[in-house]
Amino acid sequence: MASVHESLYFNPMMTNGVVHANVFGVKDWVTPYKITVLMLLDEMTISTSITLLDRRRLNKLILPLLQSPDMTLSQLIKTVEDSCPQLAYTVHLRLQLMADGELKDMEHFFDMLPSPFNETESEAHKTSVVGLFMRHMVLAYNKLSFSQVYKLYTALQQYYQSYERKDSPAAEPAEDTDMELTNTEELGGKMEKEELDLEPSDDEVSTRGPLSQKQAEYFLAQQAYLLKNDENKALDPAALQKELNNMLKFNPDFAEAHYLSYLNSMRVQDIFNSTDSLLHYFDRLILPGGDSKSNGDEGCGRSLRYAALNLAALHCRFGHYQQAELALQEAIRIAQESNDHVCLQHCLSWLYLLEQMKGSDSTLTEHAVKMAVHFCLPYLASLGIQSLVQQGAVGGKTANKLMDALKDTDLLHWKHSLSELIDISIAQKTAIWRMYGKSTMALQQAQVLLSMNSLEPVNLGVQQNNSEAFAVALCHLSELHAEQGLFAAASEILKHLRERFPPHSQHAKLWMLCDQKIQFDRAMNDGKYHMADSLVVGIAALSKTEGLYRKALVLKARNQTTEAYKVLQRLLLYCEKIKGTEMTIRVMLSLAELHWSSSCHAVALPLLLRSLAVSREYHLQYLASECILHLAFSQLMLGIPEQALNILHMAIEPILAHGALLDKGRAMLLVAKCQIVTASSEPSKQQKTQALEVAVQNLEEAGTYFTKVDCKERVRDIYYLQARLYHSLGKTAERNKCAMLFRQHNQELPSQGVPLITRL
Amino acid sequence: MAALSSQFGDLVEIKKQLTVIIALCRERGLMHSVKWASELAFALDPLPMNELPPPPPFTEEDAQDLDAYSLAKSFFDLKEYDRAAYFLRGCRSQKAYFLYMYSRYLSGEKKKDDETVDSLGPLEKGQVKNESLRELRVELSKKHKARELDGFGLYLYGVVLRKLDLLKEAIDVFVEATHCLPLHWGAWLELCNLVENKEMLKSMSFPDTWMKDFFLAHIYTEMQMIEEALQKYQSLINVGFSKSTYIISQIAVAYHNIRDIDKALSMFNELREQDPYRIENMDTFSNLLYVRTMKPELSYLAHNLCDIDKYRVETCCVIGNYYSLRSQHEKAALYFQRALKLNPRCLGAWTLMGHEYMEMKNTSAAIQAYRHAIEVNKRDYRAWYGLGQTYEILKMPFYCLYYYRRAHQLRPNDSRMLVALGECYEKLNQLVEATKCYWRAYSVGDVERMALVKLAKLHEQLNESDQAAQCYVIYIKEIFECGELMEQVELSTAFRYLGQYYFKNKQYDDASICAQRCCNYNDAREEGKSLLRQISQVRGQGETSSSDLSLPFIFGPLSAKNTPVRRMSPLNLSSVTP
């Protein structure tokens, strides 16, 4: 080992970074900031002139002051000023006296400090937070060696002077400009000064002085909490990493910082650093277990198991499923060897999750849930139930059973106050209701989640609202609003989502997909197929099946029937393979529509009947009504309008109650069409007129629905139909009005696409 | 590479230059450079009286500062840096100015070290800074701009920059210093620590002097480019530095790095002969003795060093190694701890302590020790490897993959990491990855000769009998070429497998040779005999039935293509050896 430099040989005791954390056995020590806080506390006990309101504010301030990292004096004084300007001034004055005075002033201060404890009616009780802090400080001060006391005093002076200098910043730039006019020699002097000044200010920004053990712990806990619950309020990744690196440089044994660094690296999808930090954390964690011989082995093994488990989780997050599986197997093996059922249970749920992510359909057994309950792991148990419910919902279990199960888990959640799972449960209910086509219920559940107060103690003014459940609920909400034509509201919600889940974050994909879907639907309604086409790529990137489906829709709208048919057939096969029931039904409906456009209405019928059967089997009520709508249209085209009207009665009610505006409009239009056709076969003229008038009203209703969702083509066609009806009713004024409106619309729109008559 | 600069022709001139630089460095208190140069000068023949170089020129300024300088130098030598700086503050000569700045720098460093012990709290520790650095930088940069710095001044400026973590600037300044004063070894040495890779080295321009060769050799050793380094050192020896202890020690370290134990040991023995009271590098020597389990030699070395100086890091490491060899691991750990107390940045001691804890089955402490080693130097492959081993012992093959991979990254051509990686993959049942690792381990030169056997067994598992046979053949060949017959078990399995393989492929001659070889080993004797019986049986049948005879013709070209053609040679060779 070649020596680097002569100075290394100076002092063999030289330590640089490689020191054990608690060489002195103290967790806290005196810094200038803490002296100032002590002064503040002292003043608070002495002075009697503080009003009650001020005192209350000050009392609220104390805990953050004690816990937070050291602030600069200007920050501190500003904080105190907000609560009580008078006290801030006194503290400032006292500090000034001490800093401008002599060492003995500080010594005197610490001599005087314990006196409040001696009085029995003192405000700061010995065992109170403030009392403990004061005693800590006095103790730490008394432990200081001679040179350390002097160092502390000079640090105090610097602390005060840096505040003074900042207080009068106006003076310096003036000096600088003066200097520039002078000769070169002074230029050097200026540089010197600049350089000397520059660094401390730089340090101030990045590191607010060294942290004590307690402050560091508090900092870590706070940031970890923020990362979990409201990422945007935490420090941004780069700043946090800098802070952590700083902390680790001074104290490499501070293992928790490594864990936070792991979490932080995960935020920016940095696999190298996150793996490194995670493993480092567990390497460090092992030590405490080794201390005591008796449970040392146990503690060590325990952290090993969880180390492997965490590694699996990490690989899972990055999508390395094979690696994740290997790590998980390892965790399971170690856990089995040491009979750790709790860890095993965790492994099991991860295993299930992993299988799901890999796309293979594994089923979590009810047995696993029972085991989890047995080992008193309510979190895992209800997570298991929720997975089972999800499976059941997709697999067509009846709603009452699912809701029953969810109710049971809810009981469990409230009992153990698992707020996170409550959120998930509500989001799940939203999704299930939406799947069944009960938009009102879905809306209600989403609102419940959003307006619910989190169960966790309100900490730092942060509500727990960063979870996937919130993202899901908000996405549903925005889609529901868009369905009702409330596009402004929908985009408002999306804007909020974008802020809360920035694009790099884990759940951002959810709202991205939702956003594009809404845009796509609007473009399709508006007849802007080229825009819709450009969105397809984005959708396909986020969801393969959805992308394919939308592509087929665009092709269909552009009358590229053959291509659309090919895409839909492929999609149908794929969906049947992965058992995506909803998508299968949608695809079959689209296929039926394709058959219509080639006037093969009879061919469409078996497809429609099949999709109706499937949607009934899986209780997808809304899709079922959609199927009926399609069936009725086919029947109308096949010349049996009475039959069509008959079955339409089944569908019209759920559609009007829960449906999207577009579907409502389509349903009403179809009813009107059927009525027009049946009217022609009415025997008496009066009945015929009556029937036509009803049809006109229905058309009117359909028209308002279409206008709300900007469906200009459909609106135009409605005007046409209305004009024809008014004509046959002999209402010339109305007829002319409608004809004029039709003309207006017709001029705006290129007449392309399928005429309304042959379209649903 | 071997072409040294032409100046080596004149050793007398070099000797003169060395004599001058020794005096210059001594005047400025740069004791390590003095030591290095003197060591080198000592290796050359002494100069006759009339050839001695004249003392450095003495200027008017020097004369003026003489008294202040002498006083300050005495203070400096007594490590009273502030006092020295105080008396030098007005001096104008270059020599005095350097000493002035240097004492200020050292005083700052000393205070920093003292303060670390005496700081307010543990977390503040890392923040203790050499306060004088910034002032020094400002003053020196002014002088630097005005081009008033001589070689020593530039060197000091570079050191200050490096301490302030301004590495790029520091490198530039050091390069400038080497141009200005090529004989000052300190500047070169600093560069060795700053240059990170080959590309960086290539992009820099150095003065074309004989010092450059020493520098290049040194940096090649640091960068693990051992071949080049050895070449350089060999040519330096050829030129006439054969007596230099510095070169001998460097060569020994280089051999140690490529694990050429015998050569390294002989170099170290030579070094001990020439410089019996040397303590530097002796920890490396003890590592070698440890690997070779040379107990008496290690014991002698430990006692000897203990007599010379008990409180040196190297001594503690040697004693630690000694105890470790005697399986007294607690005591060994104690001595490594002592070494760390003497110098906490001593990386080798952390790693060795980790090994000791591993021996004591205290895995958590071992992990801690290794982690410390990594913190001191992230590029310490032994610590990464040790961590991997620890987790492997804890039966976490997937977990330890990461550590082995890190170690492999640092030493891409070390077969041990590759074999370890392969074993882990094998445990994880990822046989294809494992075969890749073993094959790579074999191709970079397997130290323990296990990769091939493992590879062969893997191929057996994967039912790739041709590849398996090929591996066994190469393995047998290598073993017999070395003449070592230690791994008998593996040899017998190799022969057994080959026998069966040839038998299956109807190459009865080869099969019977293998079977005969099998009979030499106890554990394979029965199988060998039964195989021989089978062969003779088949041969007996073969003469009667002609259909069987035609089979070898079909298999012949196929097997000849898949198994190496030279497969006969190891067997022939083996029949010569007992």
TrEMBL record, chain A:
<comment type="function">
    <text>Component of the anaphase promoting complex/cyclosome (APC/C), a cell cycle-regulated E3 ubiquitin ligase that controls progression through mitosis and the G1 phase of the cell cycle. The APC/C complex acts by mediating ubiquitination and subsequent degradation of target proteins: it mainly mediates the formation of 'Lys-11'-linked polyubiquitin chains and, to a lower extent, the formation of 'Lys-48'- and 'Lys-63'-linked polyubiquitin chains. The APC/C complex catalyzes assembly of branched 'Lys-11'-/'Lys-48'-linked branched ubiquitin chains on target proteins.</text>
</comment>
<feature type="domain" description="Anaphase-promoting complex subunit 5 N-terminal">
    <location>
        <begin position="30"/>
        <end position="166"/>
    </location>
</feature>
<comment type="pathway">
    <text>Protein modification; protein ubiquitination.</text>
</comment>
<feature type="compositionally biased region" description="Acidic residues">
    <location>
        <begin position="194"/>
        <end position="204"/>
    </location>
</feature>
<keyword id="KW-0131">Cell cycle</keyword>
<dbReference type="InterPro" id="IPR048968">
    <property type="entry name" value="Apc5_N"/>
</dbReference>
<keyword id="KW-0206">Cytoskeleton</keyword>
<dbReference type="Pfam" id="PF21371">
    <property type="entry name" value="Apc5_N"/>
</dbReference>
<keyword id="KW-0597">Phosphoprotein</keyword>
<protein>
    <recommendedName>
        <fullName>Anaphase-promoting complex subunit 5</fullName>
    </recommendedName>
</protein>
<keyword id="KW-0802">TPR repeat</keyword>
<dbReference type="InterPro" id="IPR011990">
    <property type="entry name" value="TPR-like_helical_dom_sf"/>
</dbReference>
<comment type="similarity">
    <text>Belongs to the APC5 family.</text>
</comment>
<feature type="region of interest" description="Disordered">
    <location>
        <begin position="166"/>
        <end position="211"/>
    </location>
</feature>
<keyword id="KW-0498">Mitosis</keyword>
<dbReference type="InterPro" id="IPR026000">
    <property type="entry name" value="Apc5_dom"/>
</dbReference>
<keyword id="KW-0539">Nucleus</keyword>
<dbReference type="Pfam" id="PF12862">
    <property type="entry name" value="ANAPC5"/>
</dbReference>
<keyword id="KW-0132">Cell division</keyword>
<dbReference type="InterPro" id="IPR037679">
    <property type="entry name" value="Apc5"/>
</dbReference>
<keyword id="KW-0833">Ubl conjugation pathway</keyword>
<keyword id="KW-0963">Cytoplasm</keyword>
From TrEMBL, chain B:
<dbReference type="Pfam" id="PF13414">
    <property type="entry name" value="TPR_11"/>
</dbReference>
<feature type="repeat" description="TPR">
    <location>
        <begin position="347"/>
        <end position="380"/>
    </location>
</feature>
<dbReference type="InterPro" id="IPR011990">
    <property type="entry name" value="TPR-like_helical_dom_sf"/>
</dbReference>
<keyword id="KW-0131">Cell cycle</keyword>
<feature type="repeat" description="TPR">
    <location>
        <begin position="245"/>
        <end position="278"/>
    </location>
</feature>
<feature type="domain" description="Cdc23">
    <location>
        <begin position="13"/>
        <end position="252"/>
    </location>
</feature>
<keyword id="KW-0677">Repeat</keyword>
<dbReference type="InterPro" id="IPR007192">
    <property type="entry name" value="APC8"/>
</dbReference>
<dbReference type="InterPro" id="IPR019734">
    <property type="entry name" value="TPR_rpt"/>
</dbReference>
<keyword id="KW-0132">Cell division</keyword>
<dbReference type="Pfam" id="PF13181">
    <property type="entry name" value="TPR_8"/>
</dbReference>
<feature type="repeat" description="TPR">
    <location>
        <begin position="313"/>
        <end position="346"/>
    </location>
</feature>
<keyword id="KW-0833">Ubl conjugation pathway</keyword>
<protein>
    <submittedName>
        <fullName>Cell division cycle protein 23-like protein</fullName>
    </submittedName>
</protein>
<dbReference type="Pfam" id="PF04049">
    <property type="entry name" value="ANAPC8"/>
</dbReference>
<keyword id="KW-0498">Mitosis</keyword>
<keyword id="KW-0802">TPR repeat</keyword>
